[in-house]
Request: fold
Amino acid sequence: MNDKKKHPSIFEPFALIFNIVTSIIGAIIGMQIITTLGVTPSTSIVGALVAMLVARIPGAMFKKYKSVHRQNLVQTSISSATFGAANSLLIPIGIPFVMGNSKLIVPMLIGAALAMFVDAAILYKIFDSRLFPASETWAPGVATAQSILAGDKGGKRAALLGVGTGIGLIGSYFGISMSAFGTAFIGNIWALSMFGIGLMIRQYSIPWFDFDINQHYIAHGFMIGAGIVALFQVSLLIFGKQKKGNENLQTSKAEKSAEDTLTRPIKEARRALGYGFIAYLIIALLIAITGGLITKMSLGMLLGFMLFAAFAAFVHELIVGIAAMHSGWFPAFAVAFITLLFGMLIGFPPVALALLAGFSAATGPAFADMGYDLKTGYILRGNGEDKEYELQGRKQQYITGMISFGVALLTVLFTYKGYFAQNLVPPIDAVYVSTIKAGASPEVAKQLLLWAIPGAILQLIGGPGRQLGVLFATGLLILSPNACWAVLLGILIRVVVLKVKGKEAEAPMSILAAGFIAGDALYSFFNSMFKIKK
Reply:
């Protein structure tokens, strides 16, 4: 199929320059907003809109951007640079700055940058495997793809997307989480139900029960328990073997059929994860050496730090990736905080804890964001119908993302001093540092272990397909006003509509959902840039 079909290359002269400029803009946007508001807006749809506008400029060079695949490379550039600069780089180097140890900034930047590149490389190598199938939700990626397709095809699709985007903008203006509402239309109902319940408990634990679940580390304990079980479930998917025998013949055929539809065999994913862990070990060693930990810890403690840091980074990206894939949200800050708590309980010195928190925070965001971008490309390229073209296009997106991460690194390198001179630091860094200074206690360990038990049980009940424990814990960790009502109401509407209209309603609902998410993303972006609403 389409033997001669060739995907546009990022190395076309104009494309390379255009995407580098877009990446610089994305990196600056990410740094500016993470230091002022503490969040990073999704710029994918903004990048797609820019590419659509460029396509309407007279001239053969610009008309090439009528191609949805070139537009996809632009959105990949800006989103990679935004999340790379803000989440994977600036947050980690802000931790030693807030601690008053500026000598650690450069070692932390080197370690965070390497972790970011490894993070994205691992996702690329395991995307559309049994671990992270392209057919899963990846909601922001769906929204961007539907926006690009609507701009390309027009007609009813564009009208429906326009209506959804308008509703998304209006709802966002009035404080409704339209991304959560839209995700409920397209995600796994079981996983999102638990996510919504978790969000509800997080929001109303104090007004309803006069009890702060965050202060008692309940959410963190739940994520630890669910995360440990999820890690075992992922391990079974990686290393498990298909059962043999006549009684399992039907199941084995079904599993084989599912495996055949994927573009990444499990052997390749297994190899990628193994190399990734080794890479994290090397990065942890490099951070330890450049950060001066050799003079502050015994050899045994140093080896323990390396192993724990590599393992924590590895688990962090998997948990963040699972949450991002199913819910469209990723609790990167909170999971990095859990890593920090464990490091404190082990007894690592403050300097090591600062480097550990930064290293852990650097992994996850690039993993999740590249998953969204590759999902966009997967839809635009026909949902994997032409495997050769899908792999070709995915590789171009991967190269584009890596170039954008490089641009983000250079942007941060040349601008971070200006931000820190004005005391502009991501707010989450103050939380990490205050926690390090406060120290851990036996009571914290008790709470974490106590609440890890129900988290593990819930994850076991749901299994690897539904991820009930991880999604419930994700909801508990995120404080987003009224997002719980948006998720639960969206699920209710979806169930009722599908019951009445049947499967024919799925396509228009997914386009509407994309509009809601697009509207929320656009509002969040423009509000953060121009302060539409205080």
Confidence is low (pLDDT under 50) at residues 242-252.
